[in-house]
């Protein structure tokens, strides 16, 4: 008979969470956040919550199916034995391919199990994993998309600063590089010299364009230039990092710690941006962060602030949690930003409470 933290069921719910305004990046437009919500329950009544997403309903339907499949394998396992469960799930997807949606499926279950582990220990996850800090600086990433005109951009940037953010991220990667530069100038002038500014090109450029743009953007004191080139072009990142003046950030599109190791060994980035759902959940995210620490590299979590801010709280080399409120509508306990920081709080696990009515409303 199941007892203690034995997993008794894994439920996956397909949600489509609408956006007020579609997002426009150099990679693709995004009308809604189609999400696979995962709830893992144990015999002693704990419930761990995590989610992942993909762009396109067919792809999320595949993700839901994969999580259901791996969820069947997880039933009967001990939720707090996260390494054992991770090894079991990773082995199960080996033949189909460990990266892509399989990584996201493993990640959701693993992350939900860390939620349970924290609850069972009576500790918030950021303290369970090391407790380096209980407030994490956050940068506004919810605006400044490519479809805004310069005046719109300037007004939006000022509004974000007015909400208390001390750092903002804008997108670049338009067909006309002069327009990219003019837009960065408009935002820098709008926010003044004291607010940190990140620019994300979403893999739009090649090496030569990156070097040229870094030169043209040098006067705007960027905190980092993010993912300027295709994420797999490690040689190009290794060439660009020492050649440009501003810090270089990449890693959000890479899978598992081994792909980040390839960047770290080549010193191909100044900031490494592990994504919780591409890393394989908390278990592998923390390994990636520790590995980067050994290389003297800082990590900055990609998305998933509700979970990842705890990991940034635990890892000494973590900086700047990305603030992206896409999943705030499904929570009764929205993330609070105080003085530009996310306060992590003391509730056991990740301290998340789902809004049952919102989940019902957005369910497909
Ligand atoms: Mg990015």
TrEMBL record:
Instruction: Name the GO terms of the biological process aspect.
Output: carbohydrate catabolic process
Q: Which SMART domains match?
A: MR_MLE
Q: Which InterPro entries match?
A: Enolase-like_C_sf, Enolase-like_N, Enolase_C-like, Mandelate_racemase_C, Mandelate_racemase_N_dom, RHMD-like
- Keywords from the named record: Magnesium, Metal-binding
Domain of life, per the record? Answer: Bacteria
Listed GO MF terms: hydro-lyase activity; magnesium ion binding
Q: Which residues form a coiled coil?
A: none
Q: Which residues form the Mandelate racemase/muconate lactonizing enzyme C-terminal domain?
A: 150-247
What cofactor does this protein call for? Mg(2+)
- Descriptive protein name: L-alanine-DL-glutamate epimerase
User: From which source organism is this entry?
Assistant: Jiangella alba
């Amino acid at each position: 008979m199941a007892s203690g933290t034995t997993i008794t069921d894994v439920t996956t719910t397909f949600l489509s969470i609408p956006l007020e305004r579609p997002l426009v990046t150099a990679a693709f437009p995004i009308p809604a956040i189609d999400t696979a919500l995962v709830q893992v329950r144990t015999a002693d009544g704990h419930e761990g919550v995590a989610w992942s997403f993909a762009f396109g309903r067919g792809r999320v339907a595949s993700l839901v199916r994969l999580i259901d499949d791996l969820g069947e394998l997880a039933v009967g396992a001990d939720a707090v034995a996260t390494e054992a469960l991770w090894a079991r799930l990773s082995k199960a997807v080996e033949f189909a391919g460990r990266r892509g949606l399989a990584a996201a499926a493993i990640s959701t279950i693993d992350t939900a199990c860390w939620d349970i582990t924290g609850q069972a220990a009576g500790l918030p996850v950021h303290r369970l994993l090391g407790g380096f800090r209980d407030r994490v600086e956050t940068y506004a990433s919810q605006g400044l998309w490519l479809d805004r005109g310069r005046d719109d951009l300037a007004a939006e940037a000022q509004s974000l600063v007015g909400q208390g953010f001390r750092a903002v991220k804008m997108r670049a990667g338009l067909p006309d590089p002069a327009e990219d530069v003019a837009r960065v100038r408009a935002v820098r002038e709008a926010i003044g010299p004291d607010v940190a500014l990140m620019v994300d090109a979403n893999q739009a450029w090649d090496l030569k364009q990156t070097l040229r743009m870094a030169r043209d953007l040098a006067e705007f004191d960027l905190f980092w230039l993010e993912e300027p080139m295709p994420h797999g072009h490690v040689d190009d990142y290794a060439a660009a990092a020492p050649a440009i003046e501003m810090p270089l950030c990449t890693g959000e599109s890479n899978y598992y710690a081994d792909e980040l190791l390839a960047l770290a060994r080549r010193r191909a980035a100044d900031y490494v941006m592990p994504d919780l759902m591409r890393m394989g959940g908390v278990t592998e995210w923390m390994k990636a962060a520790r590995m980067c620490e050994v290389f003297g590299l800082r990590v900055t979590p990609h998305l998933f602030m509700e979970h990842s801010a705890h990991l940034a709280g635990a890892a000494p080399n973590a900086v700047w949690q990305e603030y992206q409120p896409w999943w705030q509508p499904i929570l009764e306990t929205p993330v609070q930003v105080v003085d530009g920081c996310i306060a992590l709080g003391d509730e056991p696990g990740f301290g998340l409470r789902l809004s049952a009515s919102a989940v019902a409303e957005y369910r497909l």
